[in-house]
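Sat 14:20. Reprocessing the chain from the morning session after the first attempt stalled halfway. Input below, unchanged.
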Amino acid sequence: MEQGNYSVGLDIGTTKIVAIIGKKNEYGKIEILGIGKSKSLGVHRGVVNNITQTIKSIQQAVEQAETNSGLKIGSVVVGIAGQHIRSLQHSDYITRKDSEEVINEDDLDSLVNQVYKLIMLPGEEIIHVLPQEYKVDGQAEIKEPIGMYGGRLEANFHVVVGQVSSIKNVGRCIKSAGLDLGNITLEPLASADAVLSMEEKEAGVALIDIGGGTTDLAIFKDGIIRHTAVIPFGGGVITEDIKEGCSIIEKQAESLKVRFGSAWPGENKDNEIVSIQGLRGREPKEITLKNLSKIIHARVVEIIEQVYVEIKNYGHDEQKKKLIAGIVLTGGGSQLKHLKQLVEYITGMDTRIGYPNEHLAGDSDEEVASPLYATAVGLLMNAIRKEERKSAINKNKIKKEEEPVMAGFEEEVKVNQPMKERKSVFDRWSEKLKDFLDNAE
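Finished this time. Tokens:
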């Protein structure tokens, strides 16, 4: 990418909205040029429920990132999560007209398009169609069928489905905030990009992103995404429980959780007490840390058990599907003290905390390398990839125009020309959404 090129990821979360500007440096690492953060006021459990407030929060984050970097933000890649997201496995096949010709991009396209025609529940739309492995004429476990001969091409797909209205509302907010919607990506996939290594994805790993409103799960095995889920609980419900259990206001509950919270009750002695200022003229409240961690522990166990049910649904108990690399925790909620030990205790799987510094340039700000920013960094990576694809297509076009085609070699040139860039299913889907939003005005 040229010097002037930069991309933007926008993470619309339940507790915060983050705009992050960056570009690739000459070593292929991501350099963060600016970051803006604002309190998210119109999002509940990952779903926009107040458009005006959300637009305001987006504008605040974007302005801060622009001031921070001195750059102007145009197009952004946005993440989508929320309790309306579900995923399913689906197999489909096409019979090719001519089995004497090798399988090409168009065959894969028509197979994917066929999956798009699946009948969903009313008000739902397919967001991602992710091919897992292919079969050609009954020969199984093919990762890349292009260039092979065969009459029947089939594949297993991981299909991610979401509510049309929620997706349109996100698009609406972006547009009204004066931005262009470059792409929409599933948030657990973005977080996975930012914190997982290739080796982990090969060995089998479950990424758990504990956000404010939702906990996102993405499972990889043999380098391929196998399962995704969004659980409608996150750090917010823990704060809510502390507020109710200790009869204090939300701000105090949040600060208690962050400063003194622990997921392991045995850790605190009975005599460790925190005194909290009473409301206007009332006596201060005394809260024992043991009680605090009991409240947190109960809710965290519930969240982890729900995630573990999803990991079992994927089939972790089968030898072939075993997740050797265990679990990676990320997101703001992963910073809770002793959470790693609790997760290991409940699931019996190796666990580490995932920091999004895998792909960041060495001199990046400490702050950005926090698990809080995993999704935002992943979305930025997605935006950069999209830019690179675009510039690769443009280069190919220019190259083609410059190439003199000699009469006798026309056939040969055709074969050697770079394959037309296949629009990812998602790009096509984003375009459809853009058209819809333009017409809606």
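The first strand starts at residue 7 and ends at 12.
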